[in-house]
Specification:
about 30% helix; SREBP regulating gene protein; alpha+beta; glycoprotein; about 10% strand; 11 strands
Length: about 300
């Protein structure tokens, strides 16, 4: 009798143990029900018709998810539609951002170190999307005057040419079709290019206005110095007065004064020249207008 009671007790304990185990397991696998994770995307808001999200997808503004703000993950991720991969410039802001987000195009470790503005107090980019969305909005090297562009491909995501991590290959791409010519003493770039049957491209002066570029074309034996003047980038001739730092190369920190018309009796200019057959009809007309404005501005200079 006692033996039978003992067996009954053991059986009951086993049953209770199994019941508790089953109940605990059920609780464990059901406790997260009702808390569905909804991803959230950053996206561009510049365009009226298209959006690009931080996942690298481009979509119609009407098809973006109203809750997550993400584009449908259909179509091509990191699309470079309408982009020139050599110059890294696109004819569409949204596709510029999408292409820029491709890890093969933009290195995260590079852009997160970059400051958004020149002052030392400026913040750095928080993410690759932050960089791409900001960088693609405009490119100072694509602007001719105020709101005019030299090309439809004016949404560029390449690293700025004054960045320590900028690739020299990208800089050369910006000079595609440009003949970089070192002029004679006292010559303006308009004169240098014209003597070769070419035209000076004013907005490419900003590309040349960096020591690493100037040193590729000039000796710069006296170093590379910041200066002020419309004749930069340039090299001071060897027989110039000592106070002018003979054989030094000069660049300006005030890029707005760069001009094809500038010259100085003691410097040799570094000039961006172009043959007109390299350019399309609209670009030629834009360049002619740009040169005319340069000449008009020069005539009214004190």
């Amino acid at each position: 009798m006692g033996h039978s009671a003992s067996r009954t007790t053991v059986t009951l304990l086993i049953f209770i143990f199994l019941l508790i185990s089953e109940f605990s397991f059920t609780i464990a696998i059901r406790k997260d029900i009702g808390f569905k994770f909804i991803p959230f995307c950053n996206n561009t808001v510049q365009g009226r018709f298209l959006l690009s999200d931080n996942n690298g997808y481009v979509c119609n503004a009407l098809s973006v998810d109203s809750k997550s703000r993400c584009c449908p993950q259909t179509g091509k991720k990191f699309s470079c539609h309408g982009c020139n991969l050599l110059s890294q410039c696109c004819n569409s802001y949204e596709y510029c951002v999408s292409c820029c987000l491709n890890p093969a195009m933009t290195k995260k470790e590079h852009v997160l170190k970059m400051k958004i503005a020149k002052p030392s107090t400026a913040r750095t980019y928080e993410s690759v999307f932050d960089y791409c969305a900001g960088r693609c909005r405009h490119s100072s090297e694509s602007v001719v005057h105020e709101n005019a562009y030299l090309s439809d491909f004016h949404h560029c995501f390449s690293l700025p040419s004054n960045s320590s991590v900028a690739n020299s290959t990208l800089t050369e791409a910006r000079l595609n079709g440009i003949n970089v010519v070192a002029g004679r003493q006292g010559e303006s770039c308009n004169s240098v290019c014209k003597s070769r049957g070419q035209s000076c491209v004013p907005n490419k002066l900003v590309v040349l206005n960096h020591c690493d570029i100037i040193q590729k074309y000039m000796s710069c034996k006296g170093g590379c110095l910041a200066s002020v003047g419309t004749d930069q980038p340039a090299e001071v001739v060897y027989d110039a007065p000592k106070y002018m730092n003979p054989e030094s190369c000069l660049y300006t920190e005030t890029q707005s004064i760069l001009s094809c018309d500038g010259s100085h009796q003691h410097t040799r200019r570094l000039c961006p020249c172009i043959l007109l057959h390299w350019m399309g009809g609209i670009e030629v007309a834009t360049l002619v207008l740009m040169v005319w404005k340069e000449e008009t501005r020069a005539k009214h200079r004190p």
